[in-house]
Every structure is written in structure tokens, then in C-alpha cells.
Amino acid sequence: MRAPSIRTRRIFTRSSAPVAVLLAGLMVWQGSNAAFSADTRNIGNNWETGSVAISDDDGGAAMFQIQNVVPMQSGDHCIAVTATPTVASTVKFYVGDLATDGLEPYVKVTVAQGTGGSFADCTGFTADQTAPQQSLAAIEAAHSSWATAILPWTAPAGSTVKTYKISWVFDTSSLTPEQVDALQGKASSINFEWELQNN
To answer: Cα(127)–Cα(116) distance, rounded to whole angstroms?
Structure first.
């Protein structure tokens, strides 16, 4: 038998590499098409935060602007507070920014929380909770932050209104006439604050 010529061997050698690559590709294609396949997915995942909002009906006016106060004078006003959270929350009351000029131990306030009434008009107010009477000095010392706030109530998602009735008296009953006279021309002021936090 005659051996292949040099030319024949060269042609065979040059054509064998592409053929081998083609065969390998066909084997991979056949292997990949021989498998079963299935998948599932859960689409549209999303996270959105809740929100809390609180407002009152004071129209930008102070509850009390009392001038020429005399011993044992008293009064009261109401204010409606509206909580509008999208998640269950708690509302609390506290005070801040006490300005001291001598009257703070003798102006005493009682804070009640309930329903009915509106700003500067307590008609129809009914109390749910009432805090003990305290002087401006005492209430600022005891209740000046969320941690020490008073009269808490739960505000569910949606809109809830609670009314606060704040009563005051310039109580000089423990003072001598000389001490009362020394309070002429004095003043004190304080801020009333309501805060809403989610539960």
C-alpha cells in the first residue's frame, strides 16, 4: 500500500483542527439543549416609609396674652390638636422655653386633654385625662421633653383630634401683702408643645 503524499498529509493536518472545533461545538450545543429548564420569580418588591404629622388650630396665635394680671385672677383656653400619621403613633404634651421674671412660681396651670371645643372656645369640652395643677416653674422642671411628657394618647393611622383645656390662676394665697406688692410689673412666659412619635 502506497503511503500518502506530503501534500495529502498537509491538507489533512490543516483541515483536522477546524473539524475538531466544529465537532466540539456541536457536542456542547447538543448537551445544552438536552437539559430541562424552568424558573419562577417574584417581581415588584418595594419599601416605603410611613409618616407622622401633627397640627393645631391656633392660627399662629398664643393661647394666652394676659396683661394687667391681678392677684388670684384666673382663666382658661382650649386648643384642638390633630394627629395625622400613616402608622399607629403616640401624642404627648410637654412645655419649653420658660422665661423667668418672678411670676413662674405663682402662675399655676392645669392641663386637661379630651374632646370638644376648639381654639379659645371650650364650649362642649369633656376631659379624658387631667394632669395635677403645677406652677410654670414646676411643670417646666418636670415635663420639658418627650421622655417626661404627660397626657399620652394613641393616634391610629388616619386623622384624630384631641382638645386640650389649659386653665391658669395667679395664685398669691401663700404670700404676704409685701411679697404680693413685690410682684408688680413682673412677667413669665412658656411654650406648650405636642409631639407625635410612631409606636
So the answer is: 9
Q: How far is it, in rounded angstroms, from Cα 82 to Cα 40? A: 47
Would you state the pLDDT for residue 80?
Answer: 97
Question: How many domains is the chain partitioned into structurally?
Answer: 1
Do 87 and 188 contact (CB within 8 A), yes or no? no
130 within some domain:
yes
The C-alpha atoms of residue 2 and residue 142 are separated, in whole angstroms, by 116
d(CA 181, CA 177) in angstroms, rounded, equals 6
Domain housing 154: 54-198
Q: How many CA atoms lie within 13 A of 8 on its CB side?
A: 4
Give the residue-averaged pLDDT of 11-35: 54
Does 16 score more than 80 pLDDT?
A: no
pLDDT at 111 over 60: yes
84 touches 94 (CB < 8 A): no
Could you give the CA distance from residue 115 to residue 117 in angstroms, rounded to a whole number?
A: 7
Structural domain includes residue 174: yes
- Answer whether residue 45 is part of any domain: no
Report how far residue 102's alpha carbon sits from residue 77's, in angstroms, rounded to the nearest whole number. 23
